[in-house]
Fold each of these.
Amino acid sequence: MKTVNEMKLSFISKSANESFARSAVAAFLLPLDPTVAEIADVKTAVSEAVTNAVVHAYPDTFGTVIIEAKLTDKGHAVIKIRDRGVGIPDIKQAMEPLYTTSTDERAGLGFAVMQSFMDNVKVRSTVGKGTTVTLEKNFIRAAYGQK
Amino acid sequence: MVDMTYKNGVVTAKLYGEIDHHIAPRIRGDIDAQCEHSRPSRLVLDFGKVGFMDSSGIGLVMGRYRMISLLGGKLEVVNVPPNLQKIFVLSGLEKLGVMK
C-alpha cells in the first residue's frame, strides 16, 4: 500500500480542542469518499482518544497532543493520537469496558468505543513518558477504487 | 446544548448540537439545576437534534439516571437518531429500561 497523503496536527490539551480535533481528522478523510456512518465512527473514536489525553494524560496541567494521519491508495487510514503525559500503568485494565479512574461522570467506555468503531486499535504507553493510540480503518468505497 | 421545559411534573430536556467531554458538564449543570428546583416525577432526555455524541453523552445519561432516581423520579431517553444508535447499543443503557 502506498501512502497518498499525510497530515500532522498539534494542539494543547484543552477540552475545547476535542471538537476541533475530530472535525479536522474528518475533513482530512474526505478524499476517501467516506459514508456518513464511517465519518461518524472516526469522529467518535478520535474524540474518545483526544478526551483521554485531555482528562488522563495531563490531569493537572495542559500539554501537547499530536495527531498524525495517513491515507493509502487502498482506502486505508491510520490515525495516531500521541501525548507526552503521565502514561498508562496497566493498558489491559484501562481498556476494560466501564473501567475509569476519573471521579467525573465518565462512562469508562472510551476504548470500547474506539475498538467497536474502528477496524484496529493499538495502545502503546510508558509511565511518565506518554501514550500513543493508533486507530485504523478501511474505507469501503475508496478500497474499490472509486477515488 | 439544551433547552428545557417543565409541565405537569415532567422536565423535558431537548438536547441539540454536539455532546462531548467539553460540553457535557454544562448540560449536566442545567438539567440538574432544573430538576432540583422542579422535583419532577419524570425527566425526559430528547436526543432528536443531537448531531454528534461520544461516550461523554453516555456518562451524561447514566449520571442523570442516578440523579433523578435519588429525587424519586424516572428517566426516559427519546428520539435517539440513527447515527447515535451504535453508541447507545454499545453502552448497554437499554438494560436500564430508559430507552423509549
Note: The two ends of chain B are 21 Å apart (CA to CA).
Amino acid sequence: MIMAQIQQEDKLDLAPKKFNMWLFIFTSFMFFAALTSGFIVYSGGSGKGIKIILPHAFMYSTAVIIISSVTLFIASRAAKQLQFEKQRLFLWLTAILGIAFLAIQIYAWVLLVNMKVYLVNSNASQSFIYMFTGMHLLHVIAGLGLLFRALSGSYKNIPQVKNLFRMEFAGIFWHFIDIIWIYLYVFLLLNQY
Amino acid sequence: MSTLAVHDHGVESHDHDHEHHHHDTFLTKYVFSQDHKMIAKQFLITGITMAFIAMTLSILFRIQLAYPDKTFPLLHTLLGRFAPEGRIDPNFYMSLVTIHGTIMVFFVLTAGLSGTFSNLLIPLQLGARDMASPFLNMLSYWAFFLASVIMLSSFFVQKGPASGGWTIYPPLSALPKAMPGSGEGMTLWLISMVLFVASSLMGGINYVSTVLNMRTKGMDLWKMPLTIWAFFLTAILGVLSFPVLVAGVVLLIFDRSFGTSFYLSEIVVQGQVMPFEGGSPILFEHLFWFLGHPEVYIVIMPALGISSEIISTNSRKPIFGYHAMVYSLIGISVLSFIVWGHHMFVTGMNPFLGGVFMITTLIIAVPSAVKTFNYLATLWRGNIRFTPAMLFAIGLVSFFISGGLTGLFLGNAALDINLHDTYFVVAHFHLVMGSAAIFGMLAGVYHWFPKMFGRLMDEKLGYLHFWLTFIGAYLVFFPMHFMGLDGVPRRYYAFTEFPSMARWLSVNVFITWAAIMSGVAQIAFLFNFVYSIFWGKKTTQNPWGSNTLEWTAPVEHLHGNWPGEIPTVYRWPYDYSKPGHHEDFIPQTVPYSETMSSNLSHDFEDNEAGLEAFKKWQIANPPREEVK
C-alpha cells in the first residue's frame, strides 16, 4: 500500500514538471531581455544603429512561425479529442514549418551577407542581428526536439496522460519561441534606423 | 489519472517493512543518485573540497603579499614553473586571486551552499518525497562537478589559469593574447562557467518548482521555515540573473573566438593593431553586474535563512518578526536587481545615474538592518544553547553587521571615488558575504550533520574551530579597512615596489599569519567532519529539539523520506518555549487540539470552529495562578 502510494505520488505528479518548463521560459526570457538590453546600451553609447533595412525574409519567417503555432494548437486540440491521426498530421506540419523557419532564417543570413552586413563587424549593432537570430535558432532546434518527442510518443501510443503532457510541454515552449521571435523582430524593426 | 498509477504499481503486494524495491547498485546509490539527500551530500563534499582548494590558493598569495621579495624553495617544489626560484610568478599571482574568487563565490558559496542545503532541506522541511524533477537534480550536480573539474584543470595548461579577476572584464578576457591567463586558461574558465550556470539553473528551477508545488498538507507559504523562504528567493534570483550572465558570456565568446566587437574597441596588443572597433567594455560590466549583484545575495540569503532557523532553535524562542524577516528577504531580492550600477560608479557613469544607484543601494540597508535587529531580538533573553552551529550563526550576524556597515560607505557614489578597488572593498565583501556566508554554511553543516549522516559532530572540536576561525577572520579582514582608507589598491603583486604602500608590509605579514592560523583551524573542521561521518556519536531523531519537519523523518535515510504518509502541518515552525506547554518546543506536526493548554486566541485566526472549541476549553479550564 505504502509503496503504491509513494509510486503514485512520484509517477503522476506531472504538474511540477510542467511548472519547470514555465520557469525555464522565464530564464530564456531573461536571456533575450539581456541581449536586447545589451543592444540598447551598445547602440545608445556608441551612437551606431543597425542602419540597414532588414531583409524581407524575416517577414516570411515570422509568418511561418506564427502559422506553426496555429498548427500546433490544432494538434493539441486533436490530441485532447483523441483524434490521434489528426494530432500526428498537425504535429508533422508544425515540425515542417519549424524547419522551414530555420531555413528561412539561414537564408536571411545569406541575404545579410550579400548586403555586406557581416557578423564580424565594426558596428556591433549589426552583429547583434546575428546574435538575436542565432540564439533564437538554438531555441527553435530545442523546440523541434520537443515536437519530435511528442510525435514519437504519439506513434508509440503512450498513455494519454503522458501524450497530453508531452503535447503541452512542447506547446508551452513552442508558443514561447514564437512570441520571443515576434518580440525580437519588432525590436529589430524599431531599431533598424 | 490515479487509475493509471494503480494499474502500474498497485498490484504489487508488500510487507510493510519493505519500504522500497529499488535495487540500488553502488553506482545508482552513491554516484548517479537521484535522491535529494544524497545529492545534497555530493554538493557538500564537492563544495568543501573546492573550499579547501580555494583557501590554499589564498594562503599562497598571502605568502607573496607578506614576503614579496623572499624566496621559498618549497614553493618552487610545489608549483614548479608557477613559482620560479621559489617566488610566485606575477602572472600566477593574478591567477591565484582570480581562481580563489571564482571558486569561493560560485563553487563554494553558490553551489556548495545553496546546492547542499536547498537539496537537503526543501523536500524535508516542506514534506515532499523528493524534488520536482530528481533527474534534473542529478544533472545539476554532475554539471557542477564537471565545471569544478574543468576549472581546476586550468592549473595544468601551459600558461596557467584565467587571471583577469573573477569578474573577467574585457579586454583582458576577450583578447587571448592580452596576458598569459587570457589564453587557454580563460577558455577553460568560460567552459567551466557555462556548465556551472547550467547547473545552477537546473537546480534553481527545481527548487522554485518544488517549493511552489510540492508542499505537504497544511504547509501554506506562511508556515514555511525561514530557511525555505531564503532558498526559494535565492533560487528565483538565480533563475532571473544567471541567464543575463550567459548572454554576456556568449557575446564575450564571440569577441574572443570569432572577432566581433561587442566589447572591444581600437586596441593594440604587443605592438599589433587589433581589428576591433567601437565596442564597449562597459557593456560587459553592465551585463556582468546585473548577474553579479544578485549573485552576492544568492550567496548570503541562504546563509541568513539557515541562521534564522538555528538562532531560533537554539535560543528556544520564536524567531522575532517572522513576517518582517520574510518581507525583508523579498525586499532584498527585489532591490538586488536595481543596484548593479554601484559596482560601476567610476566607469564614467552619469553622476545622476550614479545617484539613483546610490539611493537604491542604500535602501538595501533597511531590510538588512531589519534582519540583524530581528536576530538580536531573537537572542535577547533567549534560553541560549551554545552549540557549535549556534556559535557560527551568531558569528554570521556579527560579520553581517561589521561588513554591512562598510557597505554604506562603498554604496556612496562620492566616497567610492576614493575607496573603489582598494583593500577597503576587499575587507567589505570578505566580511559581509565571504565570512558571513561561510559561517552560515558551517552553521548549517554543524546543525544538519545529524540529518545528513545520522551522527553528531564533536562539539569540542567545533568550539575550537569556531573561535580560531572567528578571531582569525577578523584579524585578517579588519586591518584591510585601514589599508583601503590609505588608498592601497587590491591585486597588487609586491608592495615593496611602491613607496606609498611599502609601509603596509608589516600589516600584510600580520594578516598572512592570521590567515594561516584560520587556515590551520579548518583542519579541525575537516577532521571532525570526516571522523564524525564514520565514527561520530549516533544521533537521536530530533537532537536539537527542533520543530521543523525534517526531524520527524527517521534517522535512516529512505527514498521518499517518510516511511508512511507524509506528515501534515498544523502550525508555524517557531513555537519554542510557548507558555503553557510542557515542553519547550512544539513540532509543526502537532495539531492545536493536542496543545490546548498553550493555545492562544490568535492561533485560530482563520479557524472559527477551532476558536470556539478553544473558548469552550478555556471556560472549562480556568487559568490557575502561576507557580513561581
Note: The first strand of chain B starts at residue 268 and ends at 269.
